[in-house]
Amino acid sequence: MSFECGESSTALSSTVISFSREPKRKPSLSMYSALTCRLGGELAAAIGKEAEYSKRRRQALKRVDRELSRGNFKVALSLVKQLQRKPAGGLRSLGAAKLVPKRLSSLDELELDSKELLTLQALFDSVMESIERCNPFDSLDEAPSDTVESIVEDGSYVSLKEEDHFMCVQHEAGHFLTGYLLGVLPKGYEIPSAEALKQDDFAVGRVQFVGFDFLKEVADARKQKKDTGQVGSWAMQGNRGEISSKTLNNFSCVILGGLVAEHLAFGHSEGHYSNINKLDKVFQWLGYNKSEADSQVKWAALNTVLISHHHIQVRSRLAEAMALGRSIGSCIDSIENALSGELI
Fold this sequence. Notes:
Elements: H1 2-20, H2 29-69, H3 73-84, H4 114-134, H5 136-139, E1 157-158, H6 165-181, E2 186-190, H7 194-199, E3 204-209, H8 214-227, H9 245-266, H10 274-286, H11 290-310, H12 312-323, H13 328-338
Antiparallel strand pairs: 1-3, 2-3
Helix pairs in contact: 2-3, 2-13, 4-9, 4-11, 6-9, 6-12, 9-10, 9-11, 12-13
């Protein structure tokens, strides 16, 4: 009996060992096919939803274009604000950029890796050198009075050569993108053709924005000073309560967006710094002294460098749309598509 039990145990043991050595079953082709079909279906559904959201956004942006073309800027702004709040098919990137607090005055105070810090520091230093070469605050009273009237435009770039067309496009795209990411709606733009630049040494490009209406007041104040013979004493009583700090901060960054874009695209700027002069006229109108103006410019340059450097490819896509003369809505759509799924 004991022998039989032992024999039975041995047989059982052999059976167990034999079972443990049996090769694992590999997934069959049908299992792979089923999994692939399921994943493919989920991917197709996700792509379908994204396509539907994009279609809705384009349709909504056509309405924005219609209102802008009619001069209904407040209505257009209201429409984009509604789109901004939509989680799907909305304007995810509008106003999504975050500005560095004013208590931070240098890149060293930000949490950046050493490689990125070196790149950004070189760019920032180059931009600041260009701004300082302009030195508008010190030479403001000697500036020709007829250069001030163009302050009613929200951005311009003077081109001297035909090959500057590409630089002009990049410059204006820099204004457009910076404004949009800060929540400022562009209401129109102009990009001179290469032929126009060839025929006219002073052809200009420009981007205009909703919400910078105070620039007209700055121009009017300057004109009044000129009419009364006080151009040489441009010091103002101060209009600091006329615009909010947020508007000034946005304007300061937007006005530098073109200059920074040139540095990113070409490593230098060949503009005539009319944007810097415009910014300085605003500081004078507000009653800022040189120290206050320098501090605001440095802070704005720091933020604009950070925003522009992180979105080089987005600006390139936008520049392509602007070079083709696309509508404001189409340009906005190109930004949203380029930033889809990206951190802002």
